[in-house]
Amino acid sequence: MKQTPLYPVYREQGAKIAEFAGWALPLQFTGAVVEHLQVRTAGGIFDCSHMGEFLVTGRRAIESLGCLTVADLPGLKPGRCRYTVLLNERGGILDDIVVLRLDADRLFVVTNAGPLDQVSGILAAIPGIENISDQTAKIDIQGPLSRDVLLAMGCEAARDLGYWTGTETEFLGMPVRITRGGYTGELGYELFLPADKAVTVWNRLLEDGRVAPCGLAARDTLRTEVSFPLSGQDFGPEVTPLEAGMERFIHWDHHFPGRERMIRMRDTGDYSRLVPVVSPDRRAPRHGFEVRMADRPVGEVTSGTFGPSLGTGVGLARVIPYAAMPGTRLKAGPRDLELEVVMPPAYRKGTCRMK
Question: Which of 79, 112, 169, 267 has the highest CB neighbour count under 10 A?
Fold first, then answer.
């Protein structure tokens, strides 16, 4: 398995290691529920250095990348971030990505680890796009106290960053790119820094008693509670953005792969939907569970877990249109687990949008 620059550190810190997309990453340190609640109430840090990063330079490169996504990337304003997806020729999702407009001439693009080799090959064919993944580490600090922690360490850029914005700055004497997105539903920041400085930053963050290291297990329960999908699990190359619940992110007035097909789907409404579901008790839906309505199969669970902040089972399911309305009662799995479709996000007390 591949290792991030932080692997020796969290190995020493007693992390339970698991394989994810070919990487050896921390599954948990003190326990998934403890780490989950740490992020909801204070602050946690995650090693996300397995993810991919690309620098896009020049108008033509920006336009070319935009034509592979459903977003209006040329229209993205400096300092703003945008969530979008890379598409195959039929409009299926190769990967979901985050794009930060650094200035008039440059974009910073963050991709997932699973499809990174395929995505790298596609982007390498576009002049002006540089893969900087190997020299970049990514540490996420998440939680309602994350801004206070960064400010106490002298990261003044965190003071004024709004939700889904980012910038280039200096932190602890090194150049960093910092965004305020958050995959957990809480106030949070993503730090992109030189790979050889990752250990220094990780250890400095942990000197603040309000912060604790967190692993993949807590990251998964946190994102599932706020109904954020996972690339390769909740969607993939056979699923369009419409079927992944991403219609609000589609900029229809530009060319992108599969556009005509998706326009037909949009106009007829004849496509499955990815919807949040919750159970009435602690029993959790699980990935792959068949979903039924009136004893008729209507879809399947794509993500499912126990939600520590909700106190119930929570997940995502892809279902046919008439089973997708909030309030719809469904059953899933071999024991007829009761589920209800809810409006996203399932967990609504997150601090991600706080001023």
Answer: 112
